[in-house]
Give the backbone structure.
Amino acid sequence: MFWADKLLENRTGKEWINDAWTPSGIIHMGGLKGPVIHDVLFKVLQGQGKDVKYTYGFDDMDAIDGLPSHLQEKLGQYMGIPICNAPAPEGEGTFGEYYASFMRELFAKLGIGAEIYLASDYYKKGLYDEAIRFVLDNAQKVRNVYGEMYAREIASDWFPLQVVCPTCGKVGTTTVTGWDGNEVAFECSPTKVKWAQGCGMQGKISPFGGNATMPFKVEWAAKWWVFGVTIEGAGKDHASAGGTYDVARKIIKDVFGVEPPLKLPYEFFLYDGKKMSSSKGLGLTGQELLEVMPPEMVRFLMIKNEPNTAVEFNPFGTQIIPKLYEDYQKAAFEFENSTGSDLARAFELSQIGEVVIPPQFRFLTLAQWVQMPNMEDEIRKEGLSGWAKYAKVWVEKYAPENDKFLIQKELPDVSGLSFEQKEYLRSLAQLFENEISAEDLQTAIYEKSKEQNLKSIDAFKAIYTSFLGKDHGPKAAWLLQSLDKNFVKQRLQEASK
Ligand SMILES: [Zn+2]
């Protein structure tokens, strides 16, 4: 049984799926795994006829706690400010909106049906007020969870809340030091964190209505409690043993007294065995992935393996992408033939709206075709126009040298060709005196080699060597036919000397 069906077997009651992300940087492809996995769970539950909701949050009350070097000068003064209150790196709007807009675009392309919300909206509208009161009243229980999970003493004047400083606007620099049931006492410290400097203000303020934010782990649990979230997975960075996911799950249990949502940890995509990271330039961004494959295939890549399997994905100079096309075609074939396999189900859940059956044409061959001029008609005839743009990107950015076939402007080194091979090339030249179809040309190329007792493999090697400088290549007749006749004749003569 497909992992998502198995996971959601025999559940009862209403379901609320949630996922969230802090919009403060470029989205690498691994950042799409959570949204897609949750979307697939949403689809499966809808398919079961369940009453189900799927929300996706932008955690925009978080402080800016780091900036890429090119933004440090421009935005350095906003370190410590909630990302919903800092300006965008470029253009209008806020820092949070700027990065969130990229995720919104990706959601639209990938058909992700989540209802999007902003954490800052939830705070400002007072949706978290009850939870804030609850965790302040029960601060000792939160301290106990932290103490147990991190095996250290948590000070009795520590409170699970951070005020947005009314003087300097920073949230990363503040500490709540007291709670009287009405207001919190706080200070904004110049030295609390290394990456931002507080203004030194001390005072009292209402913790409600957007004046303050709960720490990440507490907020996570509070969100589950407030909305009755029943399903929320977490990527490995949060879901390692004793990590933030476990802490949040313990908080909802021990502090709020409610069972945590379904547990679903999921693994990273790896790049040569390392975690992908856009800041380190390791791996692909979500946008780059969508440039080299259709959105349905991106979804397929995210869900075809069990979530807790780390998937290696270094496409540079490898066959990983063509292999994914093959897997996808196989999955579509199994779906069409109702095999009931996991692969068929993965294909079905990868679809966005109507099912689109992909062409059953080899991607690597298409990658050859897009490198040849005048193949547009052939590509259209085979129903490959949609995929041709992806194949071009693959050839340009990812293909191993072996799969790139550039017509060489100057005669490549043909010294390795035998006398017979050269004779063969000379005899081919006459085929280009008149118009000839690619099919007829292909037949003629074979026949000439037979006439001259040249093995066909040696015949083709001679052709590829003189035009591509390689001993292999795409369908020779189509390659030659796509070129200017005089150029071909001249090249064949040069090569046969
Ligand atoms: Zn301040």
The chain is about 45% helix and 10% strand.
